Amino acid sequence: MTLTIPDTVLSWSRGLARLSPGVVPCRGLRPDEWRETHRRCGEFVERWGMQAHAAGWDTLRLFGVHPELGTIRGDYSGILVTLSVEIHEVTPEWIKLGRWTAYRHEPVKMPGMVPI
After folding, report:
1. Using the 8-state DSSP alphabet, how is residue 58 labeled?
2. Mean confidence (pLDDT) of the chain
3. What span, in angstroms and rounded, lies between the C-alpha atoms of 46 and 4?
4. Which CB contacts under 8 angstroms, 24+ apart, belong to 41-50?
5. 112 — alpha (psi -120 to 50), left (phi > 0) or beta?
6. pLDDT, tens digit, for every residue of 49-73?
7. Which of 13, 45, 60, 112 is the S-S candidate for 49 at Cβ 3.0 to 4.6 Å?
8. Separation between Cα atoms, residue 29 and residue 82, nearest integer Å
9. Whole-number Å distance between alpha carbons of 28 and 74
């Protein structure tokens, strides 16, 4: 049986691969924070990507940032953008990160949000 990886999951993986862990991609992240986030986001896509896609999580909700202010505007930051803890569970309603839970509420996106 051949495993088909959805285009969304492939785009997450390819997008992260284009980003260097040594080059901070947006404002608001320190180099050490970005290296950790980059590593953990890659692990997320590998371990949870298929499940997150099936549960309806989208690119901006996970990896979005403000187009000019990056993570300085936390209300424009996807839940994985400053990821520094382990993921424990992914459902259509939430993702459990370390000791806290990120919920998926409507409206989904802030106007103008872009993928990191």
Report:
1. -
2. 91
3. 14
4. 41/16, 41/80, 41/83, 42/13, 42/16, 44/80, 44/83, 44/87, 45/9, 45/12, 45/13, 45/16, 46/13, 47/87, 48/87, 48/90, 48/95, 49/9, 49/12, 49/13, 50/5, 50/6, 50/9
5. left
6. 999 999 999 999 999 999 999 999 8
7. 45
8. 8
9. 9
Tell me the two tokens of residue 34. Answer: 């970005």
Structure tokens that stand for 2 in this block: 């051949």
- DSSP type of residue 4: P
pLDDT tens-digit map of 97-106 = 989 998 887 5
Distance between CA atoms of residues 73 and 22, nearest Å:
22
| Residue 43, SS3 per DSSP | helix
Question: Which tens digits make up the pLDDT trace of 8-39?
Answer: 999 999 999 999 999 999 999 999 999 999 99
Q: What is the pLDDT of residue 112?
A: 84
Q: Quote the CA–CA distance of 42 and 39 in Å, as a whole number.
A: 5
